[in-house]
Specification:
This protein is mainly alpha-helical. The chain is built from 16 helices and five strands.
Length: 364
């Protein structure tokens, strides 16, 4: 029997989605959805995980469920092809996480690079890290395996998490027999999209650092943020040679620019290499490059913004779509949980042969 090709991915609802999400994973999800290559696609709004470091602000998470759903739909995620669901509404995920906890050591979690980075970003002290946050790799393994995900499109920073998921899968299958499926990570093709820097150029784009361009920015907000981007601090005068490396504007051009953009917005250059060469030898001002980037970004984000405005006119319909998605997702997760329980031999009331064996044992 041919193994199904299944995508599982998602985002934490801690705010509106930004272009780091878009180039890192979301745009690719839409392409994969429309490719017809996959049997099932699940996209999860990871509210339970978001609560691990927003425990005192549940309203923030609650309000952002709809924001994330709107961004998904505005970008082209189609509920007819993709199941969108809310993590906390799938109780089976909690039970799977509990069983997987026995397969991972504390020291292994402590070595996970993504966990260490996220803990440092949130300035947790060692004795104040919420257990739920610390065990996020286990929760993620439950999310992926519950839906038999074979492909997980994510950004580069999530690679250690997928590696840990596969460790859990292999250990479970070794102990209990072949039950779970190892997923493959799918990274963006464009190297510039692997980890898009923030507007300040100092870190990856992050809501908590306030250095984002959101997918729902107005045209005015978008242009203002592009103009504020970090460039080369030594490129003071137009005639000065400029550096490309570490220059946020050029990193964004690498991520978003296509050859046809020059014909539309900057016809004096044939391609991005020519633009870079001019900047490096001097004679090209930062604002000209930023205006070019601003035009490209508006072309990309303008249609998303307009679709979002239309979707906002019927919010109850979005919640109904989410409710149906949760129902579909729970049916799939329940089936996987049943298989896990059977493999672990804790399906006491479904295994009638076991009950018969016990009856005979006590009759002898």
């Amino acid at each position: 029997m041919k193994k199904e090709k299944v995508i599982l991915t998602g985002d934490r609802p801690t705010g509106k989605l930004h272009i780091g999400h878009y180039v890192g994973s979301l745009k690719r999800r839409v392409e994969l959805q429309n490719s017809g290559e996959f049997d099932k696609i699940f996209i999860m709004i990871a509210d339970a995980q978001a609560l691990t470091d927003n425990v005192d602000n549940p309203e923030k998470v609650r309000q952002n469920i709809i924001e994330v759903a709107l961004d998904y739909l505005a970008c082209g995620i189609d509920p007819a092809k993709t199941t969108i669901f809310i993590q906390s509404q799938i109780a089976e995920l909690c039970e799977l996480s509990f069983y997987y906890m026995n397969l991972v050591s504390v020291s292994r979690l402590q070595r996970n690079p993504t966990v260490k980075t996220e803990i440092q970003m949130r300035n947790f002290e060692n004795n104040s890290i919420p257990v739920g946050f610390f065990t996020y790799p286990i929760s993620q393994a439950a999310d992926i395996t519950a839906f038999k995900g074979t492909v997980v499109p994510v950004g580069e920073d999530q690679k250690p998490m997928l590696e840990q998921t596969n460790e859990i899968v292999r250990r479970f299958n070794h102990i209990y027999g072949e039950t779970l499926i190892e997923p493959e990570i799918l990274l963006p093709d464009n190297a510039a999209c692997l980890r898009l820097p923030g507007l300040d150029g100092k870190a990856k784009m992050s809501k908590s650092l306030g250095n984002c361009i959101y997918l729902s920015e107005t045209a005015e907000e978008l242009q203002k943020k592009v103009k504020s981007m970090y460039t080369d601090p030594d490129h003071i005068r137009v005639e000065d040679p400029g550096k490309i490396e570490g220059n946020t504007v050029f990193t964004y051009l690498d991520a978003f620019c296509r050859p046809e953009h020059f014909e539309r917005y900057l016809p004096e250059y044939a391609n991005l290499d020519e633009l870079k060469a001019h900047y490096q030898r001097g004679g090209l001002g930062d604002m000209k490059v930023k205006r070019f980037l601003g035009a490209i970004m508006e072309e990309e984000l303008g249609p998303i913004r307009e679709r979002r405005k239309e979707l906002e006119k019927d919010i109850p319909a979005i919640y109904e779509m989410l409710r149906k998605g949760c129902e579909t997702a729970r049916e799939v997760a329940a089936e996987t949980l049943s298989e896990v329980r059977s493999a672990m031999k804790i399906n006491y009331f479904e295994d009638m042969s076991f009950i018969d064996e016990q009856a005979k044992r006590f009759q002898e």
